[in-house]
Design a protein that fits this description.
The complex is a heterodimer. By secondary structure, chain A is mainly alpha-helical. Chain A has nine helices and no strands. In chain B, a hairpin with a 7-residue loop joins strand 2 and strand 3. Chain B is elongated and about 55 Å long. Chain B has a single domain, classed as Winged helix-like DNA-binding domain superfamily/Winged helix DNA-binding domain (Arc Repressor Mutant, subunit A, Orthogonal Bundle), CATH 1.10.10. Chain B is mainly α. Classes of the chains: A mainly alpha, B mainly alpha. At the A-B interface, helix 2, helix 4 and helix 9 of A face helix 1, helix 2 and helix 3 of B.
């Protein structure tokens, strides 16, 4: 019998490990994850009466994904994530707040700053570019459905209304896309902040020996 | 633990670097005469004690040794579950380990001698 909440516990560990190894070359990341998973599988197989506590102890012995991440970055000479500076703060302000003040221009400037920053990985930047329009269009669709359900657009025959609605839709997308991108990038930095704290904790822990 | 002088910090960092460096060769030594898979290797290291605090950190190390051609790997069927990756020391790894053994003996003898107060 495996631990009652094995899937949740292992899923969370696996996700965090994947996140921590983001900066490694893909083949190395996959190899390390596969070996850690094999370790877990082999260790679990030896314990037929496994409880949640057993599984948590097993993961404790393996070590926090953050510790494995720091070790992996050191072994493969990958730099620790760059600190967040003024450039990143301004970039996020331009993306999150700017579009409500100066649409379009603000988003483009913010985008350029993000592009030149080393605090985000290429993958995180790509994610923001791909997902921000998808999420925005999803929100737009939701809004359209809601409006139709409530039955606002009764006078839809009017050309003026169609024109106004069209303008609103364009504004909606243009304003919200950079905001969503900003949120995704801010989230990436927040997670990275935790990574840096763990890196620091590991160095302190090592220093105690 | 608190340190009064900044020199103590670099001292401690040096020791942790030594441990990391030595661990690499301990892993290689454990793969010298016997091929082992991940968990087996971790258990062999644990049996000695004091070398590894977080077992998972062995896997980045193994990956690095493999990339540098110091260990070789083979997949083998296991009695239960999917195939396992077995690690074994390569020829280049053997040379590197022999080199380390020699250096380590000379180094540890010298350090032991000085730490014991220079009396022979």
């Amino acid at each position: 019998m495996s631990a009652p909440h094995a899937d949740t516990i292992l899923g969370g560990y696996r996700r965090r490990l994947d996140e921590e190894l983001q900066q490694l070359p893909r083949s190395r990341r996959e190899e390390i994850i596969a070996e850690v998973e094999a370790h877990i599988r082999d260790a679990r197989a030896a314990n037929p009466a496994e409880t949640d506590a057993d599984l948590l102890n097993l993961l404790d012995r393996l070590g926090d994904p953050g510790i494995i991440g720091v070790e992996a970055r050191q072994r493969f000479d990958v730099a620790e994530p760059a600190p967040v500076g003024l450039r990143e703060v301004i970039a996020l302000l331009l993306l999150l707040v700017g579009p409500f003040v100066i649409p379009v221009v603000s988003g483009i400037l913010g985008g350029l700053l993000v592009r030149s920053s080393v605090s985000w990985t290429a993958r995180q930047k790509r994610n923001a570019i791909v997902w921000s329009p998808v999420v925005t269009l999803g929100l737009l669709l939701l809004l359209i459905v809601l409006v139709n359900v409530i039955g606002v657009g009764n006078s839809s025959t009017s050309v003026v209304v169609v024109g106004v609605t069209g303008l609103f839709l364009v504004l909606f997308v243009v304003t919200l896309t950079p905001v969503v991108a900003g949120l995704l990038l801010a989230w990436a930095l927040a997670r990275r902040g935790r990574q840096r704290r763990i890196g620091h904790a590991v160095r302190e822990q090592r220093a105690r020996f | 633990m608190q340190y009064m002088v900044s020199g103590a910090d670099s001292n401690v960092a040096l020791i942790s670097q030594m441990r990391r460096g030595a661990l690499e060769f301990c892993v290689m030594a454990l793969l010298e005469h016997e091929e082992r898979y991940g968990l087996e290797l971790v258990q062999a290291l644990e049996a000695v004690g004091g070398l590894v605090t977080s077992e998972g950190t062995i896997y980045p190390l193994l990956s690095r040794l493999r990339r540098d051609g110091l260990v070789e790997t083979t997949w083998r069927e296991s009695e239960a579950g999917p195939p396992r990756r077995y690690y074994r020391l390569s020829q280049e790894g053997s040379r590197s380990l022999a080199n380390f053994r020699e250096e380590w003996e000379r180094f540890s003898d010298a350090v032991d001698h000085v730490l014991a107060g220079g009396k022979s």
